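Service request form, structural biology core

Requester: graduate student, group of Dr. S.
Request type: structure prediction, single chain
Budget code: on file
Notes: please return the result as structure tokens.

Sequence provided:
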Amino acid sequence: MVLIAAGVFSKSGKALVARQFVTDMTRARLEGLLDAFPKLIGNDKDALTRQHTFVETESVRYVYHPLDNIYVVLITTRNSNILEDLETLRLFSRVIPEYCRSNDEKEILAHDFDLIFAFDEVVTLGYRESVNLAQIRTFTEMDSHEERVFMQIKEAQEKAAKQAMAEKAKELKRAQKEALSRGLKPNYANVQALSSLSSSSAPSAVAEPIVSRPSQPAPRGPVGGGKALKLGGKTNDEDAFLNQLRQQGQTITPVAKAGLGSSSSSANPTPAAPRVKREAVHVRTDEKINARVSRDGGLESGEVLATVSLSVASPDLNSVSVQMSNQAPAGGAQLQVHPNLDKKEWQTSSILKLKSNGKPYPVNNDVGILKWKQVLTEEEQLPISLNCWPQESSDGCQVNIEYTLQREDISLQNVRIVVPLPTSTAPVVSECEGSYEYQKTRNILLWTLPVIDSSNSTGTLEFSVPNGHSDHFFPVQVGFQSENLFVPITVTDVIKQDGSAVQYSVETSFNSENFEII
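Core staff response, request fulfilled:
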């Protein structure tokens, strides 16, 4: 079998797409063969009475298949196997609906290059390849399982390096504070001796933080050639690269310039300014939710984890007691206090108080004093629920997503709902509460709402895509932040050992760590 060319013609005889598979034929010769096809098959009346779907000339054979408003045509040599020609023609006919929503002239012309690339996967140098429709789709999308595995490994390594860097920075900062509390100079030798860190405990890519040495008179003139590398300096290439990523829809987290012993990391950026004014005693509660919800309804797994930490600014406040208000339902959350605190005092009066022989709180350092865990068993316990409803049709897929705020006592801020999309598909949004953004490079639709509270407890996003099926739109990931706690355990008072009240500040945060509909 030698297949010379493949083409798509309109019923009026216009050549819409044509692809040549042999190299020993001139362009003029191929155009002559294409122009001859409409004349050979005649008009529509002749096509209705004809009992076959091929036409032969002295040199070539035309094998064609009518498909609604178009003809799919193969031009082969006369001595080719007609049965193999018909099998190849059927595969070409199945390729067209994969890339075109309808079989009209406008749609064919809009996806002409996609069809040409698919035709090249079916035939090579005039001979058919042993491929099926799924393989053609994979080859044209250039999807590589090895590449996905490599990227996952690379992301895991980067995440581990960032975590190790953050942990080491925290230890160095803690060692420096301990040196200052003992009256030692915060030089590099003291920090190294107190921290007792091994260089092998962190990846080689993590650089040692630079610790300031005692001040020395600086030289008046520059030493060396004057072109040494400047630490922390941005180059023009880096700025251009970041700007290009932003234009493609990537979110670039700004990295703040860290001082000595900074423990900030890019995974958990620290806000530029605190939300509340910090007093001499500051109590912070960080609460996170993890949930996996089935697309058909029902909670597969869910839990809420929280940590309450205390920070005091002076030594005369390092033994304060914190009065808590525990409004959580009985048996709902599993509470655990720090071993240095009096558990009986907590169980009887909900007071977080040091034991009589307990160590005082360190100064200017966050110390965890209480934590809790609540396991979620029902979907109705979640603060927000999503109903994702993709519906397939001959024209593509219609997707409706509706959110419902189930805990109206919680106000959610900066809500981000990420919906994956089929490859190389731009959605058409017909209804949206809030705002949306189609990120082509990540192949997602990002739905954002600044606030979800009792005033807008429900909302809908509706969009359509020309192809794909229901599995393409999962898992849907939900992210949010809130100042309202899921488990209502709050601070009511802070007192000294002598019973006098202390001015304090409270900071609460509740956010989603891993919330998805699968």
